[in-house]
Each structure stands twice: as C-alpha cells, then as structure tokens.
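Below: protein 1.
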Amino acid sequence: MITMKSITFSKHYGTKKILLLTAVFTAALIVLLGVWGVLQYRDANRYKAQVRYTCESALYDLSAHLQSMDEALKKSLYAGTAYGLETLSAQVYEAGGYARSCLAQLPVGYTTLENTELYLAQASEYMLALGRKASQGYSLTEQDRTAMQKLSEIAELLSVQVGQLRDQMNDTGIWELENDDILYGSQGQNASFYTSIQKLEQAMTDYDSMTYDGLYSDHYRTRTSELLQSAQEITRQQARQKAAALLNKDAAALTDDGDAFGVIEAYRFIGDGFSIAISKRGGYAVSLLKNRSVTTESRLSEGGARQKAEAFLTRCGFEDAKFSHASTADGICVVQFYSEQDGVLVYADAIEVAVAMDDGEILGLESSDYLLNHRQHGFSAAKHTAYDVAKKLSSLLTLRNARLTTLPNSASEELCWEMTCEGSNGETVTVYFTDDGLLEKRIVIQQDTRS
C-alpha cells in the first residue's frame, strides 16, 4: 500500500535528483565551453602568429631579392662581353622570380600591387631577352643602358621601402592587433598592413613602358582583348551573383569594393577573408584571393588538387584550359593552366589556381593573362619532330615528355618545342627550342617544393 508520505518523499527525491543532474550538466557545459574557448583562443593566436611570420618573412626576403636585382643590374651596365651580360641577366631573372614569389605571399589582393608585380616580371624578362640577344652577337645600345639604369633605381628604391615597411610594422605594434585589423585596418586605415603595403606602388609612378622579346612586354599588355571585346557587358548585380556562386556564398555576404579599370574592367567585391573581381564584359572571374590559415599536413595529393582546380575552372567558364604543372609549398598547391589550340600549348593564355592541401578549398585564382591574350591563332604545321629536337639535348638530360608550345617574341607567339627532362640530380629541367632553327631559347629548372 502506497501512502501519501511515500508519494511526497518520491516527489521530493525526484526533484532533488533533477536539480542534481541539472547542476552536473551545467557544470559540464561550462567546462566544455571553457575548453572550447581556450582552444579557439589558442587557434586564433596561432593563426595570428602565422600571419605575422608569413608577412615578416616575405618582406625580409623581398627586400633581399630586390637588393640582389639592383646589384646585378648595376653590374650589367659595365658588362663588356656577351658572357658577362648573359650571366648577370640570369641573376636578375632569378632574383626577380624569387621577389615575385615573396610578393605573392603577402595577404593582399592581386590588383593592389599590380604595378610592382609588373615591374618585377618585366625587369626579369627584359634582362633575359638582352642576355639571349647578347649570345647572338648583339651589343648594348644607349637606350638599353638607360632602361637598365632605370630598372636598377626602382629596385633600389623598392628594397629600401620594403625594409622601412617591415621596421614600421614592428615598431608601431601593428602585429598585436587582430588579424582583420592587421590586414584591412578596421580600427583605422593608417594602422593597417593593407594600406601600408600600397605605398610600394608609389615608386612605380615614373616607371616607363617596356617593349622587348618576352613575356609581359607592353605590346602584349596594351593590345585589345579579342575575348572580352566580343563578350556582352553585365551589370554589377549580375557580377555579384556570379561571384557568390563561385564562392558558394549568399550574395548578401559580398560587399562592393569599387571597380577595376585598365585593360580589364571589372567589378570588385570583398567579404570575410576574401576578395574577388568579375570582368564587366563576359562576367569572367579575373582574380580571387582568400586569407585563411592552412595546415601543412596534406590530405590531398597534387593530383587531387589538380582535380579540384579543373572543376573550379569549369565553373568559371574556362573549359579549354589545359593542365601544365603544379607546385606545392606551405600547404598550398599552385596549379598552372594554359589554353591548347591545334595541339599547341599557348603560354600567353595562362591561368593560376591555388588549392589548400588540407581540405581542397580554392584559395586563389588569376586569369588576367588568359583574358587578355586568348584568341584563335591558326598555327602552321611544325617544321621539326620531337625526335629532331631530342638530338639537341644535353647528354645529362633524360627526356620525359615533348610537346609544342608558344613563347612570345616581338612580333607574335613563336612556335617552340618544350622538352621536359630529368636532370642528373633528379630535378625537372625544361628546355625550349624554337621550331624554326632549333635554337635553345630557354632552360627552366624546377626543384621539388613539396613540404
């Protein structure tokens, strides 16, 4: 028989049990939230430290490589032999390539340092062109020396400015701000890395145009884009929808960031850790940059990164882009694509895609070269076979692949044979021969950069 007393006791006991369990669960939740908060704080500090280390390291190395460029350019002015000029030209080309790599590591949009990047590219290719001409008996003219002197002055000025910027960032304590403040200056534009780094562009105001036999020459950059001229112009709202779809985000997450003018006119948008530009004609993705921490522990292979990049380019509308090569460093795989016509790889039509190796996210895109140069070429048949070209290779090289490509010269793209080989130390060595005359035009050594 159940009495009223036992019922009262049961209710009282049940209430105490519920209160006890509630207290236990609350305490556990507090502990879990505390642990989560500590982990988030630790991850935030780790990311903050990574941003600081990347920026400081890139600025330090950039200053050093600019100084190397300046020294080699100064010495080139006094070169009296073809061998001397060729050697120094190669040093400028190498230092310029390293400097461009450092510039790419800075967490700013591509268009922000467009002129600085162009200077590094043109200085490198201009000196490489002079070195090639010297090997064929060409002597420097007064115009050449004037151009080299100007390139040297800019390299020296940029080197000093980059060093001052690095010191300024350290002295003002900007690194102690939150990451968004470091990059974009939400607590004041004068205290942001984004604003400070733009000062480098001021050195480029007197930079003259350059025309030569090589990539990035102004006679290529200033010509009208056949692809964009024939495309229909879109509205900013249409561009926003296109950008949102590529980013897998709601259109409301994109903030207007003005327009980009020049050869490629584009609508620019920014958001939480990303920036993107969409061409006004055709609605093509011109550039994309995402800033986030990437772990160096790779879950993807370079083949997997290539598949991610190819799928993204298809979504962008670049269906004819063909894979060329990939390189991985610091957990990011940069995949290079070019267009292919009549079995010829067109190097002027270049597209780069950056893929995070930890989860396959697309972190970057640069398609301006493709958009500027893509057109129908109508290549004539090759005069030589791969077998003919292979006879010209050094005995230290083992041929792995041969294909027809183009390299730019002062008139148009020049048909060449690209011979991909393995060097004596296991490195990848690519040698380019002109199809007309089988001249050894360029040698590129690619070291394994996978981490």
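Below: protein 2.
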Amino acid sequence: MDLYQRHCLPCKNGTPPMTEVDEDTHFKNLVGWELVRTGTHMIRKEMKFKKYLEGIAYVSRVGAMADEENHHPDMHIFYKRVVVELSTHAIGGLSINDFILAAKIDKMEQPRF
C-alpha cells in the first residue's frame, strides 16, 4: 500500500524515532522534500506561489488534511512561499506518520505556474 493511502496512528509511549536506514527507505518515495538530519530529524518542503493568498490557501488545505490525520506539521508562511516541516514531536524525530502526511501533501492538487 502506498504511503498516501495509509493513515497516521498515534505513537506509543517509548517509541523510538526511525533509524536513518528507514528514513532513507521512505524518503525516496517523496517528491521535492529535503531530509534534515541536524538536530531533530525532519523532512521539509518549500512551496512557492504566484500570489501571497495562494500560499495562505495552501496552508489551509494542508492544515485541514493534517487535522484529519491528527498529525500536525510546523508551517511557516512567507511572502509568496510556504515551508512545511514534519517530525514527530512526541518521539523527537521522524516516524512513519511524517512520511504518510508528506505523501498525502504530495498528492494534493498543487498550484500550476
């Protein structure tokens, strides 16, 4: 089953973050993301928009989907660009949930410029 077809599940107490091998395995299925391994491991994606309000609309769509999955990314809004950062705060690193949500974000209809 592809990642975007799965659903995020709460991490159990004591769940360790993914190993770098597992991160690499799931990361290769994403489009346009950056794997950050300094400090807390995360995956990060920057989107550019033609207009400021298009970025705001994108954040709203991602936020609604993230809320349905009960897995909430950090999102940074700048003029005509948005940065989405995913890590699992409860375990201090990456979990399968981060890759599931990233795959769902990749499947969203993206603006075409």
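The chain has a mean pLDDT of 92.
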